[in-house]
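ESCALATION

Customer reports they have been waiting on this structure for their group meeting. Please prioritize. Original submission:
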Amino acid sequence: MSSILNNPLLVFGIAFLVFAFCVWFGNVVLSRYRTKDTETSEDLGIIQTATLTLLALLIGFTFSMAIDRHDLRETLEEGEANAIGTEYLRADLLPPKASQVTKDLLMQYLDQRILFYSKQEREKIKVIRLKTDQLQNDLWNEILPTARSNQTATIALVVSGMNDVLNSQGYVQAAWWNRIPSTAWILMAAIAVCANLLVGFGARNFQKNIALFMIFPFVVAVSFFLIADIDSPRGGVIRIEPRNLITLKKALSMQTKTETPSPASN
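Update from on-call: job pushed to the front of the queue and completed.
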């Protein structure tokens, strides 16, 4: 099911076909059991209204859940960029050799974090995660000897900054794994199926106004598409862009070029 939810267009296609079939089934099959008393009774209208209201509430709450998760991912991307940028500056507090190596590793690490946010194939994502883990180990091992031999408040500041860099990646990964539960999707889909069946069941001129009655399943399918799109950080049209990481990369690259002495100065 996760593979379907990672493809919002597929969610839209499946949802529209299923809901359109439910409207048709409700009118062609279930309406045979509709009596004149059912048509004139207010009970059908009450049930339809209650079901549609419940569906609207579920879609609204689920959409709110997706938005909250999307905003959290954007906030964590900003926090990760700040952590890497701060540690890059704190690397100057290390001995010259360790400082330069740490900065180089941070630049490589920054490249991998930018790739993580881009749309990639599954195999490429695995490679990015492996490189990220390796760079995290290299970064920690690079500052560890200095931290052990020089236990001062200044070096502790560098170690704390590196902890923030490593932790920020874990927070981002946890946020990307935190998706709308499958049970919530199943419940919302079940209510939507019932609502479309009731729409078809209560339709009196379905054959003459088929296009009109297809508007409701289309609108519900669009709602499902939008929720799936926002909830999918990598597979949707609306994705988390690493704007802060890219801006940081450009700033650090410019700083590196400025610090590097030109051949004429030698």
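Sent to customer with the following note: The radius of gyration is 27 Å.
Escalation resolved.
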